[in-house]
Amino acid sequence: MDIVVLIPSLNPDQKLVKYVEELCEYGFSEILIINDGSSGLYEPLFEQCRQHPQCTILTHEVNRGKGRAIKTGIEYYLEHFAGRYAGMVTGDADGQHALADTARVAQMVIEDKQNLILGSRSFDGDDVPARSRFGNKTTSFVFKLCYGQKVVDTQTGLRGIPNAIMPWLLEIAGERFEYEMNMLVECSLRKVKIIELPIETIYIDENDSSHFKVVRDSVKVYWQLLGRYIKYLTSGLVSFGVDIGLYAVLVSTGLLDFLGDKSAVSVAYVAARVVSCFCNYLINKKVVFYKKGNYASTMVKYLVTVVIVLLLSMGAMSAVLHIFSVKAEDTVIAKMVIDFVLMFSVSYNLQQKWVFKKR
């Protein structure tokens, strides 16, 4: 089969050897195992796998995490296999993936060649450990809320990765289990489809062999899931504070009294927005969306976004002035409410999906 199977492994048991034997018997011609800092006690198991000519074993001298193991595998694949195979399938060494499911995901990569393929488990059965059911359903709900795409199994280790997306997968942050979540986030942002194939749900001894550390790794996973949004909120609040602060100074200190209330509001709006939007642009580009280069094009798109949001905001404020007949110095709170709504709806979506869109 024209697919490489990648298996990150830490202190495995006999299930790894069995999985490798099954893959070889099925016809997989290249199996890449990453020994992620396993104890020397487990070397005999790796040696058993090494007896199969299809197997290549790469070793991390110390445990570096599943994310790093996957990256090591991708780097080796791009150097040695990219011109010969359609992509790779990542599998777990703990016996949770049936051979038939691995083969189905591999075949889908060969047929699709562009999108990420997930072998997705069902979490509704009575044999599913409670922590796995709760964790996956919660994470799936949050992912849908943040990125608008439903992914039933966000933590599956059975993934089909075509050649087309491998180079930028190496650029994704995360060295441990959080890397797999960040892979889904990046695919969503880059408009790469996440295709799910239902697979058999296998839990052995309630998944006790998993190296997932509930507290530490859960925090990292959820930071990858929500971190971008949290940083955007922080960036928006900083810029929002600059905007409101400067606007309040201009309309409350008498500096623009000679213009009249309506003109003073318009001038203060523009001045405050120019300063705050420049701060927001730099923070979002460098910290939130990690968009490299392209200052000219992203700045133009960002300014168009600012103009759109500014016109919407000024239109709303004009309506407030006409409807309620308030003075300029009394419009600060109204501006805060209007801009808060626009910043976390219109502006965020335009920036994520257009200004700083990843390709």
Short description:
The protein is an alpha/beta fold and 359 residues long. The protein has eleven helices and seven strands. It has a seven-stranded mixed sheet, sandwiched between helices.
**Strand count, sense and closure of the main sheet?**
7 strands, mixed
- Which range best describes the helical content: under 10%, 10-25%, 25-40%, 40-55%, 55-70% or over 70%? 55-70%
Strand content: 5-15%
Instruction: Tell me the overall shape.
Output: elongated
CATH topology of the largest domain: Spore Coat Polysaccharide Biosynthesis Protein SpsA, Chain A
Could you say which structural class the secondary elements and strand pairing correspond to? alpha/beta
The end-to-end distance, rounded to whole angstroms, is 30 Å
What is the domain total for the residues?
2
Number of strands: 7
Please tell me the CATH architecture of the largest domain by its name: Alpha-Beta Complex
Radius of gyration: 26 Å
CATH superfamily descriptor of the largest domain: Spore Coat Polysaccharide Biosynthesis Protein SpsA, Chain A
Order of helix and strand elements from N to C terminus: EHEHEHEHEHEHHEHHHH
